[in-house]
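To whoever is covering the structure queue this week,

Two jobs came back overnight. Logging them here so there's a record in the thread.

Job A:
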Amino acid sequence: MRALRGRRRRDPVRLLRAALLFGFAGLIAKLFITGEMVKYMAPALDPLTALTGAVVAAMGVMEVAAGSRHAHDDGRRVDAIEQILTYMLVVVPLGLGLLVTPRALGAGALGGESVASLLLGYAPGSAPSPGAGPPAPFKPIGDTADLLTYLQQAGVSGVGQRVRATGIALRGEGLRGREFALLRYSIAHCVADARPLALLVIGSGDPVAVDQWVEVDGVLGVREREGNGLVSIVAERVRPIAEPQNPYLSASF
């Protein structure tokens, strides 16, 4: 009878696995509810990420059910220290995900890469016709993604178009006077494949604090630098803003 009672006890290992699985499902739900999933994954992957959360939760239910049945000792012994370290490798990132608010990639993610090398340039081609106005955009240029779409449409003939862009203000070697770079990252799937790009801004007024998000209103221009025509914005207004809810551009703009 005593042996039978021992075999009917709950399996603590399976219940611990269930708790971890529910924790990760809860983390996925938390990121969706707070709108922070975009800090990790591209919005196009939201359905797949939600499905992953549902599957992980279902696995947790299965572990609870299995852990509530007859537990048995199959004779194997697991080193306690090894088991603790294994679970810590799972618990630590889970805890950080639940407790820490994610931040968008900033200047530190460049890894020492020169800002000047990231400046966007016009494709080689003819200069805009003198006196000809820029082509009208398909929709108002209200942010960096709209500006990049317009540049794909108009190219260098868009010089003179009024635009608005947002990004992280940076300075670096190769920038002159009141020039600064407007940094953004584009992602295809997640932040692990993030790629930086920058727009040259010719500032006006007071110097801009570096490594902060700003909104720039101005006129699209071109600046010659080492034989290349760089996309530039002649700023009329620069103001600091909070980090946007979705700080990343789509890889397709």
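Job B:
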Amino acid sequence: MENLRVEMTHAGREKNLALANVIKYGAVSHDEKEITETEHQITEENKQQQARLSNNIIGPNIIHEIVSRRTGIPTSELSQAQHHRLLKLNENLRKKVVGQDDAIDSITKVVLRHKGEFSRQNQPIGSFLFLGTHGVGKTELAKTLALELFDSTESIICIDMSKYTESNSIARLVSVPPIKSSFSIAQLIDESSDKKHVGFEQDGELTEAIRRQPYAVILFNKIEKTHPQIWNTLLQVLDNGRLEDGKGQTVDFTNTIFVLTSNIGAQYILEEVENQSSSIKISNGELSQTIKNPIMKEVRLCFQSEFFNRLDDIVFFQPLNINQLSSIVHLQLKSLECLKEKDIEINLTDKAIQSILKKSYNPVYGVDPLKRYVEEYLKEELSKLLIQTRFASPSLVTIDTDINNRYLFRIQHLQRTTSNSPKKLGYVRHSTHEEPMINVDDDDEQENRFSAYEDGNTSPRRLSKQMKQSPRMRK
């Protein structure tokens, strides 16, 4: 490049303008263009290299994720934003669990008190006894609490205590030492048990789960059915926050929440529901003190007195009213991930909700038959509709019923409109398409299928009467 410039200058001095122009507008211009392109290419490569380097920088979020995977400690416990989530815990739980505000308030107070270090030291975060009829949200609240506190639905350990009714079942829960040669096998066999457990060298179901997942919600379902010997172990954990298993290993429970569920006294709640002709017609959904008193009387007969001193609270779960049941149906449909991905919104008319509740809900079984009905009928038909129909994004699907009590789908293709606020999107109706669903107006068939699904020969009303007439539970 420098040589060309020298030759161009020399040609100009010798008045050789033709050669000077050839060099200036030919060779020099071509070389300058190549140099510019090369410099631009180098600049782009440098930018890409810097981007790759910046992506390889290990930040706090990556560190939190790696530590969480290795230790089982949730990322919320490692980040500085945990206190913001704790302050919104009550609000977030209410969005996902319907109709149990008192239970949510009780849990939130205990958790905040523990996080503020005003609770007893070296004990679990909280321990609760959930009382109420079947299918009112006891398990759902425990699962939602695990998700909100520990960032994962896998942070809940569910144990059915009806499987631990024998004296030697404690071995499966926390493990026992292996058999020593100084003992005879006959001494170690429990003659009163159908299953002759000689000893367990495997890890206990509870202790091993907490060793792998130290931050978790422990859900003991049907706690009243467990063997009394297990109560002694449970009292030790609630009192000391730790437990030594049969292998001599200490398991830490100070970062766990114990949730014990029971249906004790459910017959009193069902009796109150039927006195009002249907739980769907309950106006406030709150239990009166006249119902709580006999329930607590049975609870005291079933559990040891020392047990109540270790609990943070005994929570009564309320029966659900019509508005709360409607919200549950909406949540079941709006939780579909496939609809979220396609930007499809679901809306139900009042007639559709009334039809769903009439065909599926029964106070004896709670919302479980309702969820199953939505799963097997509405979601199935929505799936067919998604396959058969091309949806524009976004769309609104309204579920209604006709005069023959058949479900109808009204598909409204919406168009986004820009509003004053950049964070809000408005929608206007673009076009409407209507599709009828299958005929599900056979009320007798639906009632037989969903309200008595646990026992084909027992109707819900007959089961309710059986629960009323059953003898009270005693120690």
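Note for Job B: The chain has three domains: 2-55, 88-316, 322-450.

Please reply-all if you pick these up so we don't duplicate work.
Q.
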